[in-house]
Design a protein that fits this description.
With about 250 residues, the chain is of the alpha/beta class. Helix content is about 50%, strand content about 15%. Helix 1 packs across helix 8, helix 3 packs parallel to helix 5 and helix 5 packs parallel to helix 6. The chain is globular, with a radius of gyration of 18 Å.
Length: about 250
Amino acid sequence: MKIAIVTGASSGIGREFVHQLEHFYKELDEIWVIARREDRLQELKKEIHTCVRIFTGDLAEDLIYKQVLNRLENQNPDVRMLINAAGFGKYGTVEEIAKEDKKLQLQMIDLNCRGLTQMVTICLPFMSKGSRIINMASAAAFCPQSRFAVYAASKSYVLSFSRALNEELKDREIYVTAVCPGPVKTEFFDQSGFSESFTKEAVMVQAKEVVTQALVDAREKKDVSIYGVLMKGAEVAAKVIPHKVAMKVMEKI
């Protein structure tokens, strides 16, 4: 049985991946979707022609990983695609966010870094030649960002981890792609608080465009997927401009 697994599937980019997967990979027998909101996943299931298996749970807790692993061990499927789309961010200084919620930034690291890594290690034994892993990073990974410090750092981890993992898995012909979009028109952007202090119309893109590019780049075995000329320029700039200077520019913007 050939399957794809998508975390964060109840909304935004994760949900869009589920919609596009069955068109990019028509040989899939099932798509396993993971998120906290079961009602959203049930709605998604009705919209997809491929068989959808729902796993409801919080990726910040151990139970959901045990449930997924037990199902993998019992059915021994061929995991053709793992998409780690779950994650969240919060805009504000480290001190401001800590005053609002002392645990929030630790939870951000836990989900964005630990959760993603744990899903990879659970699924790898069930992946075979030609399988793909897509990890949602961010253009924030390119450079430290004042007032987005923990989120940007967590996405730098995702980018670095993904590129190293891609190199490690080449002998098995399993390929890893880190997706690094700028602001995307999803619930995440508004819930993070970033939209309140950003002129988003200039750089905002649609989830559909980012996901299509990511799936094409994954198929072409690219280790990084960046949608749009502006974000590609940001990646180049981050390589040649000292981060101290770049952070000052970002702060003025």
